[in-house]
């Protein structure tokens, strides 16, 4: 007869010697993800360095105001003003 201690102590996880590839494969995936992260961070930093320090906001806003003032919003207004 089996006692409760023997049932609990039984290895129900299969043969652990044949599945010895899980540890090295996990380490390989972690190292691969770390390398990919480092390369992505380097690429992102290089792209950020190429951006200008400031964007010309004042000129863009003035150009938008001029463009919107010069455009006709209602096509019927053009016909009535002619």
Index terms:
about 80 residues; mainly alpha; elongated
In terms of topology, how is this protein built?
Layout: H1 4-9, H2 22-50, H3 57-70, H4 75-81
Structural class: mainly alpha
What's the number of extended β-strand segments? 0
| CA-based shape | elongated
Query: Radius of gyration over alpha carbons?
Result: 34 Å
Major beta-sheet overview = none
User: Quaternary arrangement of the chains shown?
Assistant: single chain
String of helices and strands = HHHH
Give the low-pLDDT segments: none
Strand content range: under 5%
Mean pLDDT: 77
End-to-end separation in angstroms reads 107 Å
Percent helix, as a range, is 55-70%
How many separate helices?
4
A few lines on this structure:
The chain has 82 residues and is mainly alpha-helical.
Descriptive account of the structure:
- Residues 56-82 are annotated as: Disordered.
- The chain crosses the membrane at residues 20-41.
- Keywords: Membrane, Transmembrane, Transmembrane helix.
- The structure is a single chain.
- The chain has helices at 4-9, 22-50, 57-70, 75-81.
- It has 82 residues and is mainly alpha-helical.
- The chain is elongated, with a radius of gyration of 34 Å.
- The model has no long low-confidence stretch (mean pLDDT 77).
């Amino acid at each position: 007869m089996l006692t409760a201690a023997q049932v609990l102590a039984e290895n129900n996880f299969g043969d652990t010697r044949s599945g010895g590839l899980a540890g090295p494969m996990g380490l390989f995936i972690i190292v691969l993800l770390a390398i990919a992260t480092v390369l992505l961070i380097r690429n992102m930093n290089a792209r950020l360095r190429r951006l200008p320090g400031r964007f010309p906001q004042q000129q863009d806003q003035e150009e938008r105001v001029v463009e919107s003032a010069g455009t006709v919003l209602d096509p019927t207004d053009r016909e009535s003003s002619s």
